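FIELD: query
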Amino acid sequence: MLLTTVNPAAPISRRSVEAEGFEALYAEHFLFVWRCLRGLGVANAQLDDAAQDVFVTLHRRLHTFEQVVSMRSWIFGIVRRVAYRYRRTAQRKPSAASEEGEAQAVEAGPQEHLQDAQAARFVDAFVQTLDHRKREVFVLGMLEGLSVPEIAEALEVPLNTAYTRLRRARAEFRTALSGRLESP
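FIELD: result
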């Protein structure tokens, strides 16, 4: 089967998935799924398996998708449940590799790459300190760039609740960042 090209300007609906194939849906949303899983606390060693679980579930449940919500919001609902399951399993069975070991696995390159890697580790560590409600909003709003109405839709919460959670998560991020900048 050939992978079809995806027009990023055209939203993918169930009808277009049937016409273009599941591969187009996968191609358009894979990076979003992977970043969200990582942001929601799935260990680096389990990201590929978790992403596969998301797309298996998506493929199995695609016939239930309705245009009431956006495809991205619907997919995030699946991502959220898969991430929860992987975090719960990780709490029951601690892995041999610690989070610190995973953070050190990033290869150091030129100065820019090193700074980018340090910033990414800082953001990853910060996201892990948030409670799950603020984490979801922070990942969707600050890292994925969704609007607050889209976040509220994806999380199935009132709009004001999404705004409040995002505001509080941003405040915590500013505090963490200022603490990091003040330390040598």
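FIELD: remark
Confidence is low (pLDDT under 50) at residues 1-13, 96-109.
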